[in-house]
Amino acid sequence: MNPELLNAALTAAGHGLPVLPLRRGKVPFANCPACAQNACGGRPNMKTPGPCACPAPCHGWAAATTDPHTIDSPAWARAWRDAAAVAYHPGGAGLTVLDLDHADAVAWARATLPVTRTVATTRGEHWIYRGTLRSVNNVRDGVDLKSTMSYARWLGPGTGTMTALPDVVRGLVVKEPAPVRPGPLAATVPAQGGECRHRTPVFLERGIAMAEQRITEARSAIHATTYRTFLAVLSTHGRCGCLTETHVNRLFAAAQTKGETARHCTEAWNNARTALGM
Fold this sequence. Notes:
six-stranded mixed β-sheet; four-stranded antiparallel β-sheet
């Protein structure tokens, strides 16, 4: 048991913030065996804490709670023993956190945004507003939005008076993701010769549109969904030279809109290619 982190979690919960433990790397603990790969079924919309009856801190942000009996329960004791930090679910408390990752991002916020409660971080600041929105990473250089279906580190209550979420921040969510140039595709000539069936506009367009939809409609496990979708697209269209940079950028843009960074998109794409031996 780490009493310091446990006490910090109870303090944050006392402020009305749903909390959860984080392990090294600032990531949630893995699900227990009964909940692994969401085998328990979870809760269909994954929008509220406690997606299943499991007493352990499973399902990442969805496990966050303000219940002190759960936080200090035997089921959570092992996680607190190995925990490296405390996090909270901003959206569960009706809040949005602007995670400003460096000095330039902080300078932009001070010049552009209404003053609100701030919390100092290792490299920058958290600006906390009342109101929720969809969580998106990398909306600007060094700026992530953490609200619904996400978590932020608890680093203390901060200073200043919290204000309402301004329109300029809401506008960052719908900002067009910057196009990302993927690595070169490994194309091969169809063994049977003749025109590849994937080159028909209907077949290819339907496949890309379905992949975009699958990513866009994902409500959890965005990293895994992005990778599996890239893998499916490459397994169907990646060996015949059908895919163009425009097609791949559409997939990257869909993933970035869900909060993936350009780096994660590139890594997922390259990992899928490697898995297929491309």
